[in-house]
Design brief:
With 243 residues, the protein is α/β, with parallel strands linked by helices. It has 2 domains: 170 residues, 3-Layer(aba) Sandwich (Rossmann fold), CATH 3.40.50; 50 residues, no CATH class. It contains 8 helices and 8 strands, in the order βααββααββαβαβαβα.
Length: 243
């Protein structure tokens, strides 16, 4: 009988948290997000017995975060903010609310780099339970935890952005990463693309992810194909890893 060893594989759960997957929180619920958590749990239970490294990546924002709409005077959730809007702002004349934990210069620098930023309702707030794991996932499922998005002056969709995720994967001799979580078109997608850039083989499991919007999710799935990221069902993953 063939011996299966998945010590070179990591399962990365991306933002499987209550803020995105429990509709009762009324923060930034992703449609069917709870199903992503349930399928990610199945994914973990399938691969963990064979030695796969299980990693929890989630965001935790300060209340004054740059992506929160209520840190601006004339913005509402799901508005965009662009560099051209803020390039002439000064410390004396600007559109930041009192709760903002970033400066005008930090905002200008960030937007000059990215061009524009979607503004969100408050979510994944530190010192609240909104960033806790969504059931049936639990802390004991994970060997490693990585927190992103703690810098108030920068958005961080990717699990590799200003974290030690790459270092921890390298230390564990990981070659292949398998992703589940939310959202396909934002944090899951950005994490997958960064993983490829860093030399990992990447698989995104369709059953275990959900997107914010159908159009941007489809664009991201096409982006996966263009970057040699496999987008497969859980059953197809079993055939890949256990064939």
């Amino acid at each position: 009988m063939k011996t299966i060893n998945l010590n070179h594989v990591a399962v990365i759960s991306v933002d499987n948290t209550k803020t995105f997957e429990d509709a009762s929180y009324k923060e930034l619920y992703v449609q069917e997000g709870e199903q992503a958590a349930q399928a990610t749990k199945k994914l973990i239970d399938l691969l963990q017995p064979y030695g796969a490294l299980i990693v929890n990546v989630f965001e935790q924002h300060p209340r004054g975060h740059i992506s929160f709409a209520d840190n601006y005077l004339d913005k509402k959730p799901f508005d965009m903010i662009a560099y051209k809007e803020v390039k002439d702002w000064t410390e004396e004349n600007h559109g930041l609310a009192l709760g903002a934990e970033f400066t005008v210069k930090e905002l200008q620098s960030f937007l000059k780099t990215v061009g524009s930023q979607m503004l969100w309702p408050q979510h994944s707030k530190d010192r609240t339970d909104s960033a806790e794991l969504m059931e049936p996932l639990k802390k004991d499922d994970f060997a490693i935890t990585v927190i992103k998005g703690t810098n108030p002056a920068k958005e961080a969709y990717s699990g590799f952005d200003e974290t030690d995720l790459d270092k921890k994967l390298t230390e564990n001799q990981i070659q292949k990463v398998v992703l589940g979580g939310v959202a396909t078109d934002y944090c899951v997608g950005k994490t997958a693309l960064d993983a490829v850039d860093k030399g990992y083989e990447v698989i995104v499991v369709d059953d275990a992810v959900r997107g914010v919007a159908s159009e941007s999710t489809q664009v991201m799935i096409e982006n996966f194909a263009q970057n040699n990221i496999r987008y497969v069902t859980l059953k197809e993953l079993e055939n890949i890893l256990f064939a």
